[in-house]
Amino acid sequence: MKFDPEEVIEEFEALTKDAGKVQEETLKKILEENGSTVYLQQWDLNGRTDPEIFKACVPLVTHKDLEPYIQRIADGDLSPVLTGKPITTISLSSGTTQGMPKFVPFNDELMESTMQIYKTSFAFRNREFPIENGKALQFIYSSKQFKTKGGLAAGTATTNVYRNAHFKKTMKAMQTPCCSPDEVIFGPDFHQSLYCHLLCGLIFRDEVQVVSSTFAHSIVHAFRTFEQVWEELVADIREGVISSRVTVPSMRSAITKLLKPDPEQADSIYNKCSGLSNWYGLIPVLFPNARYIYGIMTGSMEPYLKKLRHYAGELPLLSADYGSSEGWIGANVNPKLPPELVTYAVLPNIGYFEFIPLRVNLDGLEPTPVGLTEVKLGEEYEIVVTNFAGLYRYRLGDVVKIKGFHNATPELQFICRSNLLLSINIDKNTEKDLQLAVEAAARLLVDEKLEVVDFTSHVNVTTDPGHYVVFWELSGEASDETLQECCNCLDKSFVDAGYVGSRKVNVIGALELRVVKTGTFHKILDHFVGLGGAVSQFKTPRCVGQNNSRLLQILCYDVVKTYFSTAYC
C-alpha cells in the first residue's frame, strides 16, 4: 500500500471545488444502496434520489427515533433494516439515551471514511511538518468488544477502528507505525498499558516523530503518570527487564522482546529528566526528533491545553479531525492554526450534510435546514447527517460556526453540544442523564422518609482530575451512611461509556455530593427575580457553569455536608 500525500491533496481539492455536485452524487449513492431498507421504504421515495424530494419525504430525526431500528439490528435481525448490506458491528457512543449507552451502526463504509479523513489531514500536516520512516507514540487503548444479543461485535468507535486491519495498514503507509505492540493497545488493564506505552516510547525515543492520542487529556494523563514512574522506567531500560508492576503475561512477553539492557540510554534519560524545571518541555527532551503533538484538542478538551503546552515546550500542538461515533464530518487542513482557532473542512463525499440555522424564525418555527454550499460565513448551525451507515437526516446535536471556505466546502469551528450538560473529557451527560441519576439515588432516602427538594450540578475542573459535583437540598436530615450510599449511587448511575471509562482510570475524579441548607434553592429563585426575571419563568438551572459565580457562591456558602463517591475505588 503506497501513500502519496500530494495525490490525496489533489483529490481533496477536486472534491471541494465541486462540493455541491459531489453532495448530490453522494446522496444519490446512499439512497441507491439503501433505498430498499425497512426504514427508507416507509417514506415513499420510490427510487427518487433528488435532494429536495429526499428532504420533503424523510423527516429530521434524533437517536431516539432510530433506536428501535438499531435495536433490531443489535438483536440479530438480518433483513435490511437501515442499510442494504448487513451491519456486523455496533459502536457504543460516548453519549447516552435515556441513561443507557447509545448504540450506533458501524460498517466498512464508515471505516473507509475514517481512513479518508486520516489520510487527508495527514497529507496537509505532512506538508507543514514532514515526517518519514518514524514512529508514533500513540496513547491508544482499546476497550473490550462484547457481543450483542444478536451476536454482533460491539465496542467504542475507536476500538472498532483500532481492531480493523485497515487501520494498521494506513498507519504503516503514512510512515507512522505505533511504537507499542498490539498486546499493549488491546491489553486488559489500562494502568499497565499506559506504563508499557511510556516504556515503548523510551525504547524507540530517537525514532518517535509524533506523540498522539485520541483526546488531549490522555496525553496529559500519560505524562502526569510519567512524573510518578519515571525512575522505574529508567531502571527497566538500564537492566533490560520490565517492572513487576506489569503482570499481564501477553504484555510482559511482547515488551520483553523489545527490551534490551541499555545503561547509556538510561543515564541519558535520567540526566535529562533530572535537569528539568517542574517538567517543563518534557516531551521534546524525551523525544528529540518529535515534530508535533496530535489529538482532539477542541471543545471539552480546551481545559487541558495549558498543561499540555507545559509538557510540550516549543513543540506545536496540532488538533485532530472532527467526527463522532456516528461518523466523520471534516478534516483539519490548516494544521498551523493553534487548537483554539482550529477549523474543519467538510469532506463532501463521506455523507450528505445539512445545517439548521440557530436563529429562530419570526413565526417561532424552526428554520429550514440548508445545504453544505448554502451556509453563510459567521453563522452558527446545528449539523444534520445522512451517511452510508444507516443514518438519514440525523441530528448530531453539535453546534458549529462557519469560519471560512476551502474552495466550495465550509470550514467549521466546533462551538458546543446543543443539549449537553455535564462533560469533562469524552463523557457526555445530558439533563435527562442527571435527572435519572438523581432519581435512582433518591430512592435510597425513602426508608428515612426523606426526599430531594431540588438539585443542580457543577463540573469542577479546578481539581485534578476534574469531577462532577451534585448539590442536593433535602426535606430533612439524613444519616451519613445513607448519604454516602446516595453519593455512590449517583456516580454509578451515569452509565455513559465515556464517563464510566474515564472514572475507571481516574481521568474523571470521584463524584462529590454536597448537601445544602433548607431554603438554598429559594435564594436562587430570589436571585433570579432580583435580576428582573419572572417567577413564572423560573427554572432551576440543572448545571451551574464556572462563569456563574454568584450562583456558585450561593450554593457553596450553604453547603452543610460533603461526600465523595467510593463507587470506583
Molecular structure report:
With 569 residues, the chain is an alpha+beta fold. The chain is built from 20 helices and 22 strands. Strands 9-10-11-16-15-14-12-13 form an 8-stranded antiparallel sheet. Helix 1 packs across helix 6 (108-128) and helix 10 crosses helix 11 (216-239). The two termini are 46 Å apart. Residues 95-100 and 532-537 have low confidence and may be disordered.
**What shape does the CA trace take?**
globular
Mean pLDDT: 83
Largest pleated sheet: 8 strands, antiparallel
Strand content: 15-25%
Could you give the count of β-strands? 22
Number of helical regions: 20
Question: Care to give the gist of this entry?
Answer:
This protein is of the alpha+beta class. It is 38% helix and 22% strand.
Write the layout of secondary structure elements.
Blueprint: H1 5-17, H2 19-34, H3 38-41, H4 51-57, H5 63-74, E1 89-97, E2 100-106, H6 108-128, E3 135-138, E4 146-147, E5 153-156, H7 157-162, H8 165-173, H9 182-185, H10 190-203, E6 208-215, H11 216-239, H12 249-258, H13 263-274, H14 282-286, E7 292-296, H15 305-312, E8 317-319, E9 322-324, E10 327-331, E11 344-346, E12 352-357, E13 370-371, E14 380-386, E15 394-406, E16 409-417, E17 420-422, E18 429-430, H16 431-442, E19 452-460, E20 467-474, H17 480-493, H18 497-504, E21 512-516, H19 520-530, H20 549-557, E22 559-564
Parallel strand pairs: 1-5, 3-6, 6-7, 7-8, 20-21
Antiparallel strand pairs: 1-2, 4-5, 9-10, 10-11, 11-16, 12-13, 12-14, 14-15, 15-16, 17-18, 19-20, 21-22
